[in-house]
Automatic annotation (TrEMBL), chain A:
PANTHER family: AMINO ACID ABC TRANSPORTER PERMEASE, MEMBRANE COMPONENT OF AMINO ACID ABC TRANSPORTER. It is a multi-pass membrane protein. The keyword Nucleus does not apply. One of its GO terms (cellular component) is ATP-binding cassette (ABC) transporter complex. This is Glutamate transport system permease protein. The chain crosses the membrane at residues 21-39, 79-99, 111-129, 149-169, 206-229, 249-266. PROSITE patterns: ABC_TM1. Residues 281-305 are annotated as: Disordered. Residues 75-270 form the ABC transmembrane type-1 domain. It comes from Blastococcus aurantiacus. One of its GO terms (molecular function) is transmembrane transporter activity. Keywords: Cell membrane, Membrane, Transmembrane, Transmembrane helix, Transport. It is found in: Cell membrane. The lineage of its organism: Bacteria, Bacillati, Actinomycetota, Actinomycetes, Geodermatophilales. GO terms for biological process: amino acid transport.
From TrEMBL, chain B:
One of its GO terms (biological process) is amino acid transport. It is a multi-pass membrane protein. This is Glutamate transport system permease protein. InterPro entries: AA_ABC_transptr_permease_3TM (IPR010065), ArtM/GltK/GlnP/TcyL/YhdX-like (IPR043429), MetI-like (IPR000515), MetI-like_sf (IPR035906). PROSITE patterns: ABC_TM1. Signal peptide: none annotated. It comes from the Bacteria. Its main location: membrane. GO terms for molecular function: transmembrane transporter activity. Gene3D superfamilies: MetI-like. CDD domains: TM_PBP2. Residues 15-209 form the ABC transmembrane type-1 domain.
Amino acid sequence: MSQQQAVLYDAQGPRARRRTQIGTVVAVLVLLGLAFVVYRRLDERGQFSMEKWGPLIDPGNEVFDSVWRLIGTGILNTLRAAAVAMVLSVVLGTLIAVARLSLGRAGRIPLIGLVELFRGVPVVVLVYIGVRVLPDVGLDMREWPGGQVFWGLIIGLTVYNMVIFAEIVRAGVASLPRGQREAALATGLTNWQTMRIVLLPQAFRTMLPAIISQLIVVLKDTSLVTFIANYDELLSQGESIQRNLGNPIQTFFVVALIYIAINYALGRLAQYIERRQARAGRSTEQPAETAGLTPVGGAPVGGGA
Amino acid sequence: MSPVFDNIDLFVDGFLTSLRIILYALAGALPLGVLIAACRVSPIPPLRAFGTFWVTTFRNTPLTVVLVFCAFGLPELGINRSFFAFGVLGLVLYTSAFVCEAVRSGINSVPAGQAEAARSIGLNFTQGLRFVVLPQALRTVVPPLGSVLIAMMKNSAVVGAFGVGGDLWSTGQRLTSALGYETLPIFVGGVAVGYLVITLTSGALLQVLERKVAIAR
C-alpha cells in the first residue's frame, strides 16, 4: 500500500496535507450522506423490522433454528461441491499440463485446442451440460454418492477449471530455472521422474497462491447451480428461506456475508502464502513469478467468474 | 446439428441480445471500475477505505448473489425495473471490482522512480500522471483488463440463466424445455458455439492489441 502511494505522489508537505484533510472531511460527509439515503430508504420500507430480521438474528424466534439449519446445510453442501470440484480439477489439470509439456507437437496441438475450447465457454453452460445434457445422453449419475445434480455440477466445474489449472501448473513449471530440469536429467532421472520428483513439487509451491485464488472462483461458481437444478447449496437455501419468509434483503445479506467471509479468508491466506514465499524466495533466489497470476485468478482468458 | 440450423434465426437473435447485455455492461463497468480504482489510489483515506470495501464486497460475492440482490432486493425498496436492467446492473457492479483491481495493479506496476523523475524535471502532478505514469500504466493494464472483460462476456450467460429473456442462454433453454428439442445439439452445438464465437473473437482481438501496446520492461 505504501509503495503504491509513492508512485503517484511525494510525501506531503503542509499545503498538500491541508488539502488532504479538507478532502477527507468532504469525502466522509458525502459517504455518510449516501449511507444515510440508503438507510432512510431501508427504514421507510420497514426493512429493519424484527419481523424481517428475527428469523435470522433472534435465537428466540420460532423459525430461527430451522433457518440456520438450512443455512448450515447450504454451507456444507457448497464447501463439499467446491472441495470435490477443486481436487478433481487440480488432478486433471496437472495431468493435462504434464501431457502438454512432455508430448511432442502432435499431442500438444489437440490439447491446446481443448484448453482454448473449455476456457471460452461460460462455466454456467458447462454446468448445464453436466447437470442436464449428460443424463439425457445416457450418463446415469443417480447411483453415484451425492446424486445426479451434485455430480453434474462437479463435472461442469471440473471441466472448466481443470484447463485453468493446466495453464497455472504449466506456467509454474515454465517459471522454474532451467537448471532444475537439466540437473535432474543429468543425475539419471527419467523424464517422468524429473517431472514428478523435481519440477512439479516446486511448481506447486510457487503456484499455491494462484491455486487458492482459483478456489475462490470455484466456490463462487457452485452457486450457479441454483438457476439450473435443485442442489441445496448456500444460495438455493437462501432462496427458499426468503420465499417462505418474504425477507429477500435480509436473507441474501446474510448469505452474501457468509460467502464474503469464506472467500475473504481464502484470499488473505493466498496473500499470506505469497508474501511468505516472496521472503523465502529472496534467500534461495527462486523467482516468484506468481505475482502476475493471482490478481484475477489466473490464465489469460481467465476465470474472474 | 440440424436443430440448431432449424432455429438459426432464434440463435442469431439470442446472440445479438447477449451482445447487447455485454455492451451495456461494458459501458457501465469500465468507467465505474476506473472510478473505484481512482478512489483506491487517492491520497484521501475515506475514499481509499470505500474503494477497498467495494472491491472486497463484490469480488468475494458470487455474481449470482449480486443478481438476486438486485432483482429481489431492490423491488423491496420500491425500485422496479425490468429483469434486463437488474441483470445488467448486477453484472456491472460485479465486474467493476475486477476492473478496479486490474487498473490498480497497472498503476502500481509503474516503478516509483518514473514518477519521481517526472517530478524532478518539474512536471506537476497532472502532467506527471498524464505524460509519464498513465501511458505506462495503460499498457500493463491491457492484458489483465482484457481477461476481466472476457470473463464478463462469459458471465453474461449467468445473467441470461438468471431470467433475462431472449439471450443465447435463454434461447437454448426455451428450445429444450418449451419446444422439446434434444438438449445435446442445442447446448453444445448452439449455445456453447455462440459464446465461443464471442470469447474467441475477443481473445484474438485482445492479442492483437497486446502486441501493439507491448513494451519491454
